[in-house]
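An instance noted here:
***
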Amino acid sequence: MTIKRFILGALTVLALALVGLSLYSSWSQPQFQGRLELYETNLLLQASEWQGGSDDGRENSVRDLLLGSGVTETALQQYLDARSQAQSLLDKLQMQLPQSADPSIPGQISQLHNEIDRLDLRLGILQIATDQTFDAVGVSRYSHYPDGIEAAMDTWDNLSDSSRLVNTAILLEGLWKDPPRFPADAEIQINEQLDGWFRYQALSRLYQLQKRQDLFGALSAAEQEVAQEDFFKLVLASGIQTLAAVLGTGLLIFILVQRLLKGKESLWTQNVDLSWFAPWDLETILQVLVVGFFFVGQIIIPLILQLLPIDFAAAGATTQAFYILVNYLLLALGGLLVLVLSVKQFLPLPSAWFRFDWLEYQWLAWGLGGFLAAMPLVIAVSLINKQFWQGQGGSNPILPLALQGREPLEIAIFFLTASVAAPVFEEIIFRGFLLPSLTRYFPLWGAIAFSSLLFSVAHLNLSEVLPLMTLGMVLGFVYTRSGNLLAPILLHSLWNGSTLFTLFLLSSGANG
């Protein structure tokens, strides 16, 4: 065994161990999807306050069609589910704490306590608004109470005395007690600790008790304005995904029917005979993935960035956005450099390898069509996946950071990272290099499946493995049928861009 092979073998073992540890640690991490669902719930709550403005009632009809009935009741159940999942995860971490050497667990426990306190603060307001008598874990043990106020009082009493939100909970209790009582700085506390629909509910109650009709009228007018804006944000956010899913479902049906009717002349079999001859073996594949993607991206670049005299964890959103972009560009540069050096001895490669053909406009149709077809497939898999993981399994750490961006420059940087840098680099590695290389050992569909599995595992979150593998399968299908790397790059870019766009829409409305 040569020294090179020994080092590569050692790095491969190290990579497998660290990837396994990352996946294992993500087991107890909350999914970002749960927070995103609450953002959508908050947007629904606020949009539901819009009374419409059309004299002929068409806007009201559209509003009722989109929002449905029982918005607050649905929101209450969403918050109860989120609270239950957070409590379940907290209980598991507290059981692990005595035996675990993981230094991150105490911090996770503290974050979950804070998250549960924030949920309880809002749950009480929802219990009053819906006149429901459920406790914080969804048990109807308050049926002897005349309304939801006592249930809300009990929910707010769940906050520990050490919670930084306990004063706000006491304030909310005072607003709905008989007789009511509240501190002089009640308005300031409400504005600081509550947002969106919950802030309007608390302020409305305060102004009514204070008999400040001028402020109550101004608040109601402002609420209508924000509610109308959030309604159209909701239409746009849900419309993109719904329209894509409907068109994608129709496209999938069309492709399957065409396959049955036209056989080998159908889109399904286009370029079915396309093949790559991989002049390299498993050693070169491992060299690119382990050294180029893992060692450079997970060890070398983080070490270099840590040497910089900047505390990125405490930095603002703009600095963090630049950090993520620079980190990804360095990863791409290092990974592509290793790729070039690894295949250099085999040049020139056949024309089918790493093909970028801008003038062959079919890549536009394959990229857009692949995006539409992926939507219903990934949604279906995600719904099944959600039932299995129950809010756990980790998420992409970039998504919470992206929510901090509110300035145009910050948003532009996140879009540049997610919709340009990530698709180009990942498609060159996973579709341009890995998938064709695996055809040396697997049939084409096996190569698509295995490269998709590695693509999903590389994101280091258990809950994302199945949805990302499904997306990877579509990306692989689009690449093999189009024979042009521009097609999966476009698909990947549209996917990441639409996800980020929806995220910004939902989060911007949630905090209004």
